Amino acid sequence: MVTQDFTAKTKELIDSLKGVCTSYGLGNDGNEFKIITQVFLYKFMNDKFSHEVKRLDPKLKNAENWEQVIAGYSDKQYDMLLLKMSADSAKLKREHYLSNLHNKQNQEEFAKFFDDTLRDIAIFNNDIFSVKTGTGAKITLFDELSNYITDSSQRDNFCRAIINPLVNFSFEKIFNQKFDFFSTIFEYLIKDYNKDGGGKYAEYFTPHAVAKIMASILVDKPVSNVTCCDPSGGSGTLLMNLAHAIGEDRCTIYSQDISQKSSGMLRLNLILNNLVHSIQNIIQGNTLLAPYHKVGDKLMTFDYIVSNPPFKLDFSDYRDDLDSKQNHDRFFAGIPKITPKSKDKMAIYLLFIQHIMFSLSAKGKAAVVVPTGFLTAQSGIERKVREKLVEGKMLRGVVSMPSNIFATTGTNVSILFLDKANTKGDIVLMDASKLGTTVKEGKNQKTLLSSEEEDLIINTFNKHKALDDFSVVVSYEQIKEKNYSFSAGQYFDVKIEYTDITPKQFTAKMDGFKKNLDSLFAESKDLEKDIKEQLKGLEL
To answer: Mean pLDDT throughout 169-183?
Structure first.
């Protein structure tokens, strides 16, 4: 009940912030996303700081007003308190507190004071909370948000209006909540800003059902001290589900994404889910052209990789740069050619699959969303990749998902599971395309899986079950015999049902067939007669 109440209040806060933006002309503006997420993050960090210092000093916990007590600390005492704080909490100066901003709303140039406060928090926490670009530049936590109001005379009022909703409640009582609570809040927070971009780079939002299935199949036993990567990170849904399945304190997250917006979303997701220690590994940059994570001069390898890469994208401007000697091992199957009339349909996902295969550690596992057509294509890069997966004995299985599992694309998708330790070839191929319930979402159809259907997919896969017309367990040799097809349907047994009947029953059935045929012939003759009469009428 407490969690439901706080979920409702948190959503009310988010709606209030959006309402303020709308009132000041920023509704559906490209900058609204930055304002909403950064102000929300400022509030979250304030409450996390309060929660943390009360944990460290009982005097603060028991005080009627902890801020009054902490105001009496000497600078040395305050610095010592900050040193004791956990790494997943932002360190704040006393002038950074939300109450300080709220109490000084009537001062002149409040917008400047507001921006300066947030900027100073960003600088004070730069080493831990900044996302880096591929060149090493740091993208700080907060922008100068008031500058998004073009009418400078309204900036003070806007900043006052955006601060007021923040003081109505505190997050402090819900910091003991785990992934499920914060994933719901995060999804609500970004729901208007992370629509599937119809093929644009790194704007995909992976449904939670897909993310859960990927994580639950990849992590089927306890592990610790492992590395997890998403080379097309997006907002981090896949990585958060994976980290939750492993344990947030038992893994380190790595990511690279060309989108600044997606990198900002992922940073926010890490902060909400106690993965601040991994923010330094979040890189904004082009994974294919300039992969950042390396050990010496070699690309770093990972224990777990998840990815829902863009399927098609125009990368013609740097396509030839990828086709270099140093990339021949990474892109072993080749690089899609430029198609002059439809450059936006270049199959970039094939490069991500090859990059992932190259980036797996000796016993690494991966799960990648692919278009279902990849499973059976009999030529080109697709075929070469499938051959490599089989010949290299690193295929774990495939789950073909229902159509419209992504609401904004009609492309049928499958999840490709890799496992470099699966040398025996106990491979699960599953056709889950008939599962799910179709619902209307805006103008689009969307297929939703029930929790029972999700568990059916996960348990059937992890237990290596063969179920009629649903799943089959095959060897590498069997896949070779089927021309390297990964489609489950091509391995299902064709069943012919036999029913014993008496001669009398047989005669009765044949008579029934004869009557049906006679009836159809009669209808056909009547129709022919009607047509002839109509034609005569036209001639007259």
So the answer is: 78
